[in-house]
Amino acid sequence: VEALVALTALFLPGMLLRGQGGIVNTSSAAGMQPLPHYAVYGATKAFVNSFSQALWAEVRGRGVKIVAICPGPVADTRFGQRAGGSSLDKFPGLAERRVAVHDLRLEPAGPGLLSVRVHCGPGTYVRSLARDIGEAIGCGAHLAALRRTASGSFRVESAVTLQELETLAQAGLVEEVILAPDEGLAGSGAAIVTVERGQRLRHGVTLPPVARESWPAAAARVYDAGGSFLGVTRVDESGRIWPLKMLPD
Fold first, then answer.
1. Mean pLDDT per 10-residue section of the chain, whose length is 249 residues
2. Distances in Å between the alpha carbon of 226 and those of 136, 231, 235?
């Protein structure tokens, strides 16, 4: 960290005078939480993260960009061997999983850049798509930017910017654009329980099946008899209702 601070002190003033420049600090995901058995390593990376974030705030709007790169465990770097037999060597890479990619379009976006538009199902790791495409064309690749344009029934065209939200809040109109918490689950099943059973769900109690017919669901909205949305539950084959994510009273 001494070299990082010294180099920043050496080059940052000139960048600020020119009104342009950038600093890229190499950190690690290890700096985002305590790391037993690697306390010093984790602490130095936490310093890099904090230092970079503070600098970013200090120079914001002055033409200089501050970035900290925080990779996780990476295979074939011999990190553990050099660290004296680290258990980090046992960290798994990205496990293979079956995903649905409905549409994938590649368009040139500039020298060395590809624009990728993908319509995919849940669980798709878009960063791994960039890696795989780079391997397929023989040069390697990584993400330069990632923007989600849709999720379920939500579309970016219907989104509200922070500036628009601030204006609405100042006018006392913010409630007009806030969606109900169950809006994102409109396509899932729903269960209605009594107020008393709803309270039990909120306290983490699994409800036994009732006499009425029920259908299993991996995720189901649940409401009490008064129409209040209580949260998200799972209904198993026997009709038992298991609380997953419940809203507070």
1. 93 94 91 84 93 94 92 66 55 71 90 89 85 85 87 89 91 90 84 90 88 75 90 88 89
2. 56, 14, 21
